[in-house]
């Protein structure tokens, strides 16, 4: 498989998710995925589970969960903001501009209308 992280991101782009619970894969909102995705996930379940166990993925999931529940925002927003927080600053952007961008994203989440999660 080319890149498990890309696969997990693709699943999330459909509004679904793959999580590891008690050592087993669980697919959240599986009905949003095409049937072919389920077959592909089943075929590569070992690689996916190994990816979900990595420190980087655990940290991402924790960060997204905190943003989602503390900010009362949709999971999709929380995941996107968590991705930005985990990224390195682009080389063409100054430290102050990157800090401003992240702060502005956080403020937009803080000021968005609350939703039940």
Keywords:
single chain; 117 residues; mainly alpha; 2 domains; two-stranded antiparallel ribbon; 6 helices; 62% helix
Layout: helices, strands, pairs:
Elements: H1 4-13, E1 17-21, E2 24-28, H2 35-43, H3 45-52, H4 55-71, H5 75-86, H6 95-111
Antiparallel strand pairs: 1-2
Helix pairs in contact: 4-5, 5-6
Characterize the structure shown.
The chain has 117 residues and is mostly helical. The chain has 2 domains: 4-53, no CATH class; 58-111, no CATH class. Helix content is 62%, strand content 9%. The protein contains 6 helices and 2 strands; from the N terminus they run αββααααα. It has helices at 4-13, 35-43, 45-52, 55-71, 75-86, 95-111; strands at 17-21, 24-28. Strands 1-2 form a two-stranded antiparallel sheet. Strand 1 (17-21) and strand 2 (24-28) form a beta hairpin. Helix 4 crosses helix 5 and helix 5 packs antiparallel against helix 6 (95-111). The longest helix has 17 residues, at 55-71. The protein is globular, with a radius of gyration of 16 Å. It starts with a helix and ends in a 6-residue tail after the last helix.
């Amino acid at each position: 498989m080319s890149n498990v992280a890309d696969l997990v991101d693709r699943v999330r782009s459909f509004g679904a998710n793959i999580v590891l619970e008690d050592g087993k894969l669980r697919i959240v909102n599986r009905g949003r995925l095409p049937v072919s995705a389920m077959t592909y996930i089943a075929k590569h379940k070992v690689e996916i589970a190994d990816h979900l166990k990595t420190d980087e993925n655990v940290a991402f999931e924790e960060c997204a969960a905190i943003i989602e529940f503390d900010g009362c925002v949709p999971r999709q927003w929380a995941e996107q903001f968590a991705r930005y927080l985990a990224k390195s600053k682009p080389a063409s952007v100054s430290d102050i501009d990157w800090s401003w961008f992240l702060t502005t994203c956080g403020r937009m989440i803080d000021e968005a209308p609350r939703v039940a999660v």
